[in-house]
From TrEMBL:
SUPFAM superfamilies named among the record's database cross-references: Putative cyclase (SSF102198)
Subcellular localization: Secreted, Extracellular space, Extracellular matrix
Positions in coiled-coil regions: none
Highest taxon of source: Eukaryota
Family of the protein in this entry: Belongs to the Cyclase 1 superfamily.
GO terms, biological process: L-tryptophan catabolic process to kynurenine
Keyword terms of this UniProt record: Extracellular matrix, Secreted
Keyword NAD set for record: no
InterPro entries found in the cross-reference section: KFase/CYL (IPR007325), KFase_sf (IPR037175)
Entry GO MF terms: arylformamidase activity
Name under which the protein is recorded: Cyclase family protein
Organism from which the protein derives: Prunus persica
Length: 107
């Protein structure tokens, strides 16, 4: 994580992993070979950056810190690495701890 050189002030990060290239998000059944965060990598991000939103498969370390929001199931096919503004539009659901969300990237 340290090698990514995420500068202070960056508050949202979307991680494109091989899950996208393998089209795991398009499968109807859960594939246990998905790529996720190791606990130490997630902990490093929480402790050493200003990130408040992470787009990845979920991880308990992120969930322990209530101020870090998670976006799961991102389909980033054809999205090159770069700096984007991300806008997320969740459905307002009463009594839910999550929501389907439409996310828009603007370069």
């Amino acid at each position: 994580m340290k090698a990514l050189n995420i500068p202070r002030g960056v508050r949202r990060v979307l991680f494109r992993t091989s899950n996208t290239d393998r089209k795991l998000m398009w499968k109807k059944e859960f594939d246990t070979s998905y790529v996720g965060f190791m606990k130490d990598g997630a902990k490093w991000l929480v402790e050493n950056t200003d990130i408040k939103l992470v787009g990845v498969p979920t991880h308990h370390v992120f969930l322990e810190r209530r101020e870090v929001n998670l976006l799961e199931g991102l389909k980033l096919d054809g999205v090159p690495a770069g700096i984007y503004s991300v806008h997320c539009l969740p459905l307002r659901l009463i009594g839910a701890d999550g929501s389907p969300t439409r996310c828009i990237l603007i370069k």
